[in-house]
Structures are given as C-alpha cells and as structure tokens.
Please model this.
Amino acid sequence: MILFCVKTRNGEDEYENYGYYETFTVKDFASQKLSDVTILSEHYDYKFTDKDEENEGEYWYGDKIVWVEGVWKITPEELKTLHKFGIIYYKGGQE
Model:
C-alpha cells in the first residue's frame, strides 16, 4: 500500500493533493511498474502524453504544471489517521 503526493503549480501558487493505492508498493513505483504518468492520469482522469511534458516528470494540465512529488509506504492505520484529519479520503476510514 502506498501514499502519493501530486503537486500543482498555477502561476506562482503551488498546492498538493494526496491519494493512495492499495495494490502497489514503493518497489513497484521505483521499478516503473507504476509510473508518474499513470498516477497523474488516474488522479486527474486525463490521459497525459509526451506532448504534455514540460520538464522531466512535470506535465501541463490545462494552464497548470503537475507532477508526482513523492510516493511512500503507508499502512491502513496511517491512512485512517490522515482520513480523520481531512487530508485524504480513505474508504476504509469510516467507523
């Protein structure tokens, strides 16, 4: 199970969003079994291509630049904590 952070730059402003995968590991990300493009495409529901690439790992999404800032191993308990504080929506986080 992994947590990922997607960053967005809109002009001078930057902000971040988080998501997770229950079926992938950090090793899968490191070996490109799960790529930046896949994460971004699924997160934004948009098919990113090479023509969208601005710099290595950064992609145009409309008038914004987006990229995967990081990927970390996470446990269900840690996801529940992030859910509790409104940082991420976790389906397994409801009690």
